[in-house]
Amino acid sequence: MKYIILFCKLLLAGVLFAFSIRQIDVALIFDFAQFECISFLCLVWFINQVLCAYRLKILLAIVDCRLSSWDVLRVTFLGFAVSSILPGLVTGDVFKVGLIRWRSNVSKIGEISAVVMADRIFGLAALIVMSCALSFQADLDHSGPAEYIVVIVRMLTVLLFLGCAIALFARVLLRRLGVAYANTRLALVINRVARFLRVLTRFLSTPVMMAQAALISTLTVVLLVAGQASVGSVATIQLGDAPKFLIQAFLAPASLVVSSFPISPAGVGVGQITLKSLYSIFELPIAAGVLVATLMQASQIIVAVIVGSICMLSFGRQNVIRR
Prior knowledge:
This protein is mostly helical. The protein contains 12 helices and no strands. It has one domain. It is 76% helix and 0% strand. Helix 3 packs antiparallel against helix 9. The longest helix is centred in the middle third of the chain and has 36 residues. The two termini are 40 Å apart.
């Protein structure tokens, strides 16, 4: 059944990609996809994942997970490869949880899952905050559909900080409910959720680690957003339009978030439709949007295949690292 679902997702990706390029000269993509451009974006993705590995190592230290830097790097790139190439078959986060449990001294799935989820939240939060910060630029159009997009981005930022506060409150509330409903089946469920939230929010009690993880998350997002906006600016200039770097930087997080959903490999089809629509709303060349999305996905898949394969082959037969 899972292979049928995967086939349907690949078919959907193909249909969406064909729909996104039906009014665009495909030759533009091949003309612009030079070695220098692809190499630049591959380097951006590679450095991004190295920084993500460092952030994951910081978060793993919270649950006293003893995992070498080399293992963390391999786990990160393998999770990235699985998410990029096989969406829906085995998600990257689930794959990372399994690898960390296999290679580390931590056997509790709940603790590892909470750390991996916290890692995902840090990345998503950085994208939302970055987009919100760029929404205050003077050159951004605040009329029509563009105004609604700006409002949605700012509302998501508020909800993000609200969610952090709710998670802290829910952890305390669930702990008290577990005591109130002791010796019942409900207590078992409540205590499991409470333990999960306790691990998920434990980083808030370690401000130094939180600051380090937040800084790394900011660097990863700035790197991806700047890389995508730079390529988009060059593409818009070649198409005879103004680069509008900051506007393209504002739109980059939305396409990165959508492309990360497990719908198609590297978000193929979905990313093109997203950027094509956003570029049209903000009066940018839609061909540039499709071009940028395609190059970002191509470079992502290249890094995922090459580095992911190297990391997979480098794993030995050792099940547990030295304690």
